[in-house]
Automatic annotation (TrEMBL):
CDD domains (alphabetical): HATPase_RsbW-like, PAS
InterPro entries hit by this protein: Bact_Sigma-Reg, GAF, GAF-like_dom_sf, HATPase_C_sf, HATPase_dom, PAS, PAS-like_dom_sf, PPM-type-like_dom_sf
SMART domains, A to Z: GAF, PP2C_SIG
Reactions mediated catalytically: O-phospho-L-seryl-[protein] + H2O = L-seryl-[protein] + phosphate
Keyword Manganese recorded: yes
MF annotations from Gene Ontology: ATP binding; kinase activity; metal ion binding; protein serine/threonine phosphatase activity
Protein name: protein-serine/threonine phosphatase
Lineage: Bacteria, Bacillati, Actinomycetota, Actinomycetes, Kitasatosporales
Signal sequence coordinates: none
EC number: 3.1.3.16
Top-rank lineage group of the source organism: Bacteria
């Protein structure tokens, strides 16, 4: 007798479903149970779905997935509907799901069952309301587990889960260390209760160990079932007074990484709905633990890299105060290409380096480490700043694909860098710059000025590049700031608006009341908020770029905060006319608190005209020296622009349409005093402005 005949005799239908084709095959009895003519037929998935109550059909996916996960039958009760939407009968479906290269297959039976007793259904937790509560619970649990950042947070979330209708009161998460079972966390037990289970061999006759070995869940509905299946370890579990237990595998990428125990003080039948909830929670818990473990490993690796690659500042420099911060970018490893360094040189001098290797990844961090070592070596050999950067550029070019000898998949990389040597006794700074932002100086009276310095291309772009050196003096009470572009551009800012933000912070700093460390913290916190540190600690994910900042202050007490003069010294080469805009900006910053705004605009206009005349009418460079001296409200500004030409300027009377010839006319109209002084080689054109309208005394 055929199987179909046997099933028909007991009023049981047979059906097959192929996920690849979406076709459902029904024998005669299965077709009859679905309200169709009693003959074998083939239907589409949509046609079959139309025969069932939509609420019941929506449960099918969860039941099938649960059966696949547990290796059991997919069993469910379904209400069959007629064309008018009326329930004609209830059937029970049992199917065996299998998966092969062609997809998912189901082979199952259908059998009519009696409608459940209404009173009994009302008392059952598995109702429509329960299902809605279950869906809300799973959404909340998934969200909470996804947001957990560490293993401890994941375990706290797992302990706080309150499942609808059958919440466990005892939870434990087991891990695996070699061939032994460990306990990662527990809830609902007293301290020390976990000791017998904390270091258990995986071959022990214990449910969690078997779950790890087999990858399949174990449900124990009664103490009798527990005692019968696991007699050796039942005495360990009996003392906790539980009535039902569920042990579920924690599986990630096909690997069982541990087990999850949910224990109940009341009897639980572990219906398909209940098992589905537990299986879903176990899957989310496993993924959350895997994410947290990976993140913790990355943080540990990044901290190790930071400790290895980022130096602490060296011994104190007499007469100098130094502070530095490094903040890595967000996402992934907490390392990147930004760095700072301090190098002790002979004769009491010191070198400071700050740089930024392109990228925010381990590759950038590795190149940064190599470049930092090379810079230290070149500096220790006694080379001057320009030679140090030239050699460093050749070195970086050679170890990346820029030199043709690299094998890195992501190609050549470059780095910006600023290298300066300082003589603490005199405050003299020799600065060489490779595509890096210019330094800024906080003067003793609170004025903040960008200090334009000569520079060259970023390191590593071409093998042989010149890096001219700029010399300046850091006066007593002044502070120099150098930083990477991350400090300026983070938070949606560009270089211009970012500089305005940083400048405001520098102006608010009072060295008489606060240390340089306070200023370093305030600069970082302005971007990242409180709690950001320079070499340790994870930060908020809103970081957009690495940040390195280095502060150097020269000790000394000038006679009052307004006593030292403000000074700008700037060279504009024939080949760099674009630096005229920088000169205008320097003048505005020098006179940022000048009482008369019209005088400030006049000074900017005259400086622009004087420099332009030099570049247009001579073959040499222009040297700008501007100095503001005196007390606020009565200061005197003197500006000189010198060049190497002996030809003196002549007053002209330009026509209305003339594009030049107004320089001396403007100075005569706008300056309080002006003149032209011949020199041994060349000349100097100068003007003066008096803040109060008359020359300041002295």
């Amino acid at each position: 007798m055929r199987t179909e005949d046997v099933l028909a005799a007991i009023l049981t239908g047979l059906w097959r479903w192929d996920n690849a084709t979406g076709i459902v095959e029904l024998d005669a009895e299965a077709a009859r149970l679905l309200g169709l003519p009693a003959e074998p037929t083939e239907l589409t998935e949509g046609a079959v779905r139309s025969r069932f109550h939509p609420v019941d059909w929506n449960e099918i996916d969860g039941v099938v997935n649960l059966a696949l996960a547990e290796g059991t039958l997919a069993e469910s009760r379904l209400r069959v509907m007629d064309e008018g939407g009326r329930v004609i009968r209830t059937v029970r479906s049992r199917a065996k799901p299998t998966v092969d290269d062609s997809g998912l297959h189901l082979v199952g039976t259908l059998q009519e069952v009696a409608e459940p007793d209404p009173g009994r259904a009302a008392r059952s937790p598995v109702t429509g309301d329960w299902r809605r509560s279950r869906e809300a619970f799973l959404l909340d649990a998934g969200r909470a587990l996804a947001e957990a950042r560490s293993t401890a947070e994941v375990l706290r979330v797992a302990a706080s889960l309150s499942m609808p209708g059958f919440s466990p009161d005892g939870l434990a998460v087991f891990g695996v260390a070699g061939d032994r079972l460990t306990i990662m966390g527990q809830h609902g037990y007293r301290p020390g209760d976990e000791d017998p289970f904390a270091d258990m061999p995986l071959d022990t006759d214990y449910p969690a160990a078997e779950v790890v070995r087999t990858g399949r869940a174990i449900y124990l509905s009664t103490p009798e079932e527990y005692r019968k299946r696991f007699p050796a370890t039942w005495p360990l579990a009996r003392r906790f007074g539980r009535e039902s237990w569920a042990f579920l595998p924690l599986v990630v990428a096909g690997r069982t990484m541990g087990a999850w125990l949910a224990a109940f003080t009341h009897r639980v039948g572990f219906s398909p709905d209940e098992r589905s909830v537990l299986t879903t929670v176990a899957r989310m818990l496993a993924q959350a633990l895997a994410r947290a473990g990976l993140a913790e490993s990355e943080r540990e690796l990044s901290l190790g890299l930071q400790r290895t690659m980022l130096p602490v500042l060296g011994p104190a420099i007499p007469g100098m105060e130094v502070a530095a911060r490094y903040v890595p970018t967000g996402g992934g490893l907490q390392v990147g290409g930004d760095w700072y360094d301090m190098i002790q040189l002979p004769g009491g001098r010191a070198a400071f380096v700050i740089g930024d290797v392109q990228g925010h990844d381990v590759r950038a961090a590795g190149l940064m480490g190599q470049l930092r070592i090379a810079l230290r070596a070149y500096a220790s050999e006694g080379h001057r700043p320009d030679a140090v950067l030239s050699r460093a550029s050749r070195f970086l070019y050679g170890i990346t694909e820029g030199g043709g000898g690299g094998s890195d998949a992501d190609g050549a990389r470059f780095a910006t860098c600023l290298y300066l040597e300082v003589d603490p006794a005199t405050g003299t700074l020799d600065i060489a710059r490779a595509g890096h932002p210019d330094p800024a100086v906080l003067m003793a009276d609170g004025t903040v000025l960008l200090r334009p310095t000569d520079g060259g291309l970023p390191l590593g772009i071409v093998p042989d590049t010149d890096y001219p050196t700029t010399r300046m003096t850091l006066e007593p009470g002044e502070t120099l700031m150098v930083c990477t572009d991350g400090l300026l551009e983070t938070g949606g800012h560009d270089m211009e608006t970012g500089w305005l933000r940083v400048r405001k912070l520098l102006e608010e700093y009072d060295p008489h009341r606060e240390s340089l460390e306070v200023l370093a913290d305030s600069l970082v916190q302005a971007v990242h908020g409180p709690g950001s540190h320079h070499t340790t600690g994870p930060l908020a994910d809103r970081r957009e770029d690495d940040i390195a900042v280095l502060l150097l202050s020269r000790a000394g007490e000038p006679a009052g905060r307004a006593a030292p003069p403000r000074r700008v010294v700037l060279t504009i080469a024939q080949a760099e006319p674009e630096r005229i805009a920088g000169a205008r900006r320097q003048m505005r910053e020098l006179l940022h608190d000048w009482a008369d705004e019209d005088q400030r605009d006049s000074a900017v206009l005259m400086v622009s005209e004087m420099i332009t005349n030099v570049l247009v009418h001579t073959d040499g460079d222009a040297l700008l020296v501007a100095e503001a001296r005196g007390e606020h409200g009565g200061r005197r500004l003197r500006v000189e622009v010198a060049d190497a030409s002996d030809e003196l300027p002549h007053r002209r009377r330009p026509g209305e349409m003339a594009s030049s010839g107004r320089g001396l006319v403007l100075m005569e109209m706008l300056a309080h005093a002006w003149g032209v002084d011949p020199r041994g080689e060349g000349k100097s054109i100068w003007f003066e402005l008096y803040e109060g309208g008359t020359p300041a005394a002295g």
